[in-house]
Design goal:
Strand content: 15-25%
Oligomer: single chain
Structural class: alpha/beta
Largest sheet: 3 strands, parallel
Number of strands: 5
CATH class: Alpha Beta
CATH superfamily: Carbon-nitrogen hydrolase
Order of helices and strands: EHEHHEEE
Number of helices: 3
Radius of gyration: 14 Å
Length: 106
């Protein structure tokens, strides 16, 4: 058993409000680098593009890019990717829970 872990970090500037685009970039990069990594890490707020900094931010709009972890297809897919590859994934997203937003890393 190795004492070392190989960490891959996603280097991308996520697009604000573009969760679908950001997810597609993550998944394609994960597929490329998964064979080399024990852990794969995305930036904080990656999925929504850290849209909280935008002047046009509203709770209603932000809810469209936040994830309800308990029934999220993306979170389910993260679990499948991690299990199938044997790679731990640290994924930055905004979680919506009980009407509140949380900066989460899954």
């Amino acid at each position: 058993m190795s004492q070392f872990a190989t960490i891959a970090m996603l280097k991308d500037v996520p697009q604000k409000w573009e969760a679908d685009r950001n997810w597609d970039v993550f998944e394609s990069q994960f597929e490329i680098h998964v064979t080399d990594a024990d852990v794969f890490v995305t930036p904080e707020g990656y999925l929504d593009g850290y849209a909280t900094t935008e002047e046009d931010w509203t709770a209603e709009r932000f809810a469209t890019v936040a994830e309800r972890v308990e029934d999220s297809e993306r979170v389910d897919r993260l679990c499948v990717l991690a299990k199938e590859s044997g790679t731990a994934i640290v994924f930055g997203l905004t979680q919506i829970l009980d009407g509140r937003f949380y900066n989460a890393r899954l």
